[in-house]
Amino acid sequence: MKNNGWTSAMESMADLTTLSFASKALLIYGGLMLLALGLTCWVSLSDARTLRDVGIWVKPMKFMAATALFVWTTVWLCEWANPAVAQGDAYKGICLLIFLTSLFEVVYITFQASQGEASHYNTSDPFHAFMFGLMGLAAVGLTASQLWLAWEIGSARGPQGLTVTAWGVVVGLVLTFVLSTVSGFMLGGHQAPAGQGLPWVGWHLHQDIRPSHFLGVHAQQLIPLWGLIAERCLGSYASQALGAGSALYVVAWGVLTWMSLGV
Questions:
Q1: 251: alpha, beta or left, given left = phi > 0 and alpha = psi -120 to 50?
Q2: What does the pLDDT look like over 5-45, one tens digit per residue?
Q3: Are 49 and 127 in the same domain?
Q4: What pLDDT, on a 0 to 100 scale, did the predictor assign at position 183?
Q5: pLDDT above 90 covers what percent of the chain?
Q6: Which of 116, 138, 160 is the last residue of a domain?
Q7: Which of 48, 65, 69, 258 has its CA 20 to 30 A from that of 80?
Q8: Distance (Å, whole) CA 261 – CA 186
Q9: Which residues contact 32 (CB under 8 A, 6 or more apart)?
Q10: Do 109 and 195 share a domain, yes or no?
Q11: In terms of residue numbers, what domain contains 191?
Q12: 10 and 58, same domain (yes or no)
């Protein structure tokens, strides 16, 4: 992949005929999630019910938006780093894993909201406790799809190796799995404080692991973008810049995690 990888990827995304069936399916799935987000937002306008002082439809809407961004980014990164990977059988498995795990989470969270009940941390009976645990496994499976994709892109690098931008994709995908899985397990055992929190995101500035979890999940977008900037702007120092930027990202995640635990 040359420095025009970004342009090529965007052209591929625009011309759906060049995309694999799996990529097309993910793009459509992401669009349906945005449609569901709009419908849920409309329903929420006439439903004043709250759960822990937050509107019951807020969590489903967050997960719908996050799922759309996650699946579209997956397609974009694969087309950007190595379009040939998107034509392989392994990529079909990656897309299926993303679809099954994310759809399960969104459907269950939305159903629980419709009942005015919590999905996360709900261990009020054996069924809900089982479903909470199953959500944790689904979350690991969802982020593991990114580790799998990183492996496929790295394995298909060819004799010329990976460019800095492609390395940015691989590193970003790996960090998405590692950081979001660690913070996700911590979040699963440490419920955030009740109440509205910060505008838009709803986070709290103390005893809330969600900010570090957010940073972990969105390594999927931020690290590859930094790799692109480094290769285009820093020349022979691009590799070092990618390594330094990735290290600082992990440090920032660690600081947020440490602060959230109130250590």
A1: alpha
A2: 555 555 555 556 778 999 999 999 999 999 999 999 999 99
A3: yes
A4: 83
A5: 60
A6: 160
A7: 65
A8: 10
A9: none
A10: no
A11: 162-263
A12: yes
246, with CB counted inside 10 A (0-12, 13-18, 19+), is buried
Cα–Cα distances in Å, from 257 out to 61, 79, 103, 204? Answer: 25, 32, 28, 13
Tokens at residue 191, please? Answer: 């419920």
Given 160, 182, 208, the domain boundary residue is: 160
pTM more than 0.85? yes
Distance of alpha carbon 260 from alpha carbon 211, whole angstroms: 8
Q: Are residues 154 and 171 in the same domain?
A: no
pLDDT digits (tens, 9 = 90+) for 136-167: 999 999 999 999 999 999 988 766 778 899 99
Same domain, 133 and 11: yes
Looking at the structure, tell me whether residues 127 and 156 fall in a common domain: yes
State pLDDT tens for residues 190-218. 665 555 655 556 566 666 777 888 889 99
The label of the residue with tokens 């329903």 reads 43
Q: Structurally, how many domains does the chain consist of?
A: 2
Candidate from 29-33, 119-123, 168-172 with smallest mean pLDDT = 119-123
Q: Could you report how far apart the first and last alpha carbons of the chain are, in Å? A: 44
Same domain, 78 and 23: yes
Average pLDDT over residues 80-105: 94
